[in-house]
Amino acid sequence: xxxxxxxxxxxxxxxxxxxxxxxxxxxxxxxxxxxxxxxxxxxxxxxxxxxxxxxxxxxxxxxxxxxxxxxxxxxxxxxxxxxxxxxxxxxxxxxxxxxxxxxxxxxxxxxxxxxxxxxxxxxxxxxxxxxxxxxxxxxxxxxxxxxxxxxxxxxxxxxxxxxxxxxxxxxxxxxxxxxxxxxxxxxxxxxxxxxxxxxxxxxxxxxxxxxxxxxxxxxxxxxxxxxxxxxxxxxxxxxxxxxxxxxxxxxxxxxxxxxxxxxxxxxxxxxxxxxxxxxxxxxxxxxxxxxxxxxxxxxxxxxxxxxxxxxxxxxxxxxxxxxxxxxxxxxxxxxxxxxxxxxxxxxxxxxxxxxxxxxxxxxxxxxxxxxxxxxxxxxxxxxxxxxxxxxxxxxxxxxxxxxxxxxxxxxxxxx
Length: 415
Prior knowledge:
Elements: E1 5-10, H1 20-37, E2 41-44, H2 58-68, E3 73-76, E4 79-80, H3 86-99, E5 104-109, H4 114-119, H5 127-142, E6 147-150, E7 155-159, E8 172-176, H6 181-189, E9 192-195, H7 201-205, H8 207-221, E10 230-238, H9 242-264, H10 276-284, E11 291-294, H11 296-310, E12 315-319, H12 326-345, H13 349-360, H14 366-377, H15 380-384, H16 404-414
Parallel strand pairs: 1-2, 1-12, 2-3, 3-5, 4-5, 5-8, 8-9, 9-10, 10-11, 10-12
Antiparallel strand pairs: 6-7
Helix pairs in contact: 1-2, 1-12, 2-3, 3-5, 6-8, 9-10, 11-12
């Protein structure tokens, strides 16, 4: 079974009030931590309004992150293609790929915030078609083609990239939320998907249907899609106990929901939480909850359930948030790396099997202790020292150590 990859997605969603410069630095510190902990991917988005989402250029942020990290893949999550000339996007992604040593992932979307499209004078009805059009052009440019194209929103005359991506095939990924457009694009071009709508219970249960859209489109266009290229977003906050996790995350979760989702974005149907306890219960309470606020074991259970519901994905991407303070947030990511990832991927199965074998076969190893005792008894001084030797006073692995006190008592009787 292929191992499950793990990543992090930073929109970001930062409450208004903190110095933006320090927010950027704190976010870069997090990427550095994730790289050191062995996470596979880091994603950040593009937004231009709302107050909470402060990264306007994911390529610039990821270039800075690339200088602080060694191995983690760096994905645009996402570049909103209708906001940019496709040639400029292609050039920036190629430059990012070279600057990060071939670690760039090109994630694209139509644009998530209606306020961003309004700012740029873009009709929301055109955004998904423009994303499709731009992907087709950028893929041709990445292959080294010289492209002439005219559209109602861009013109390209004999355009060719001076530098091609460092990677032989830079991964293409499209964002998918509620509509089938993202999954359909993935199937049309045979590229990857990052499902962002799975942070709700309804979105989680809809994953099989969403995947069918990709498969249907792949059949229609003669391409293939792979579950190994499917990324699914989950939200969590992890601590040593459920009670501790709930204490740490409750107030921040309530603020994020009430101030951002309800008051700022005014998402239809959402009601404010009445207390931190209410926030935790409605977000992470119950068997079918898409979010986990609890222990590593709780998150393991959530991920296994997701794999069963979805039929299998390639990467679990955690949503980066400010529900807890920075110190507890970093601790949460640390605990996931130390206890959840190895449990999911079976990294400690061999250790458990080895321990079980030793416990169940103790009698087999008695001869090792007898061999140690035989050597002791061959030396008069060593034999005489038995009475002074207690448990734990010799550097012999316990499994090989004879009962020195017992042997000393025997020797004393004989004397």
